[in-house]
Amino acid sequence: MTPEKHQKKIAVINDLSGYGRCSLTVVIPILSALKIQCCPVPTSILSNHTGFPTYFFDDYTEKMPMYIEEWKKLHLTFDGIYSGFLGSEAQIQIVIDMIKEFGTKEGRVIIDPIMGDHGKAYQTYTPQMCSRMKELVGYGNIVTPNLTEACILTGREYQKEGFRRNELIQMAEEIRELGPDAVVITGVKEGSFVTNVVLEADGTHHFIRTRHVGNERPGTGDVFSSIIAAYAVHGASLRDGVRKAADFVKECILKSDELNVPVENGVCFEELLSLLIRHR
């Protein structure tokens, strides 16, 4: 009998927004392009993301345990678990429980601690939720906070620019002290560049820069972290994953501006998926 060949699978906990290119509508095609089967665990269902003036929203918190219970009955296993936006403290606990249930020594856990941006926590994120997010971060192999979230996790006062590089390294080290193996602080502005601060599991660090281009758009963090998750599950280096993610996000922003895609519609990454497919 021919042995079964194994395809990599990642369980992805995130919301599903029907319009606006963010969360699962970004994660699923990005992972697919990188030869990963995406297995979604929806946290909520939205007609479109909340950056639009009106939207439909259905919270999935009460249904998540029943959903996950069926996976337990099927004895499913995953090569990675990737957590994105969570809408409540109860969902944070559900994800912690899921990592305990489905996490393995060989698997990778990627936590994108989506709590805020531009120096402010999202309205849904209470101080208690931010504290619980610190606990969840401790279960990750790789965590990918933006600068705002890194400041929340470390209790620092946010500043848009001006952090010295030794301060950024110290911030990453303090996040790693919460428990994760490696940390990537994303989207740090340094003049005309955007820098990603990478702290490896062995304590080495890198600064990976791309030139700042175009408009800031929703969903770019989902694109970035999805590439990081795929590279991690494939066993590639974190540094290579961050470089590819940064370059790809830059090209997506440029293409979106070229096509005059409205900012609230996110990045038209579909136009450039061939870049990921060729590179994989």
What does this protein look like?
By secondary structure, the protein is α/β, with parallel strands linked by helices. The protein has a single domain, classed as UDP-N-acetylmuramoyl-L-alanine:D-glutamate ligase (3-Layer(aba) Sandwich). It is 38% helix and 21% strand. The strands form two sheets. The protein has a nine-stranded mixed beta sheet with strand order 3-2-1-4-5-8-9-10-11, with helices on both faces.
What features would you highlight for this structure?
280 residues, alpha/beta, UDP-N-acetylmuramoyl-L-alanine:D-glutamate ligase, nine-stranded mixed β-sheet, two-stranded antiparallel sheet, nucleotide-binding, EC 2.7.1.35, thiamine biosynthesis, pyridoxal kinase activity
Give me a quick take on this structure.
This is pyridoxal kinase. The chain is of the alpha/beta class. It has 9 helices and 11 strands.
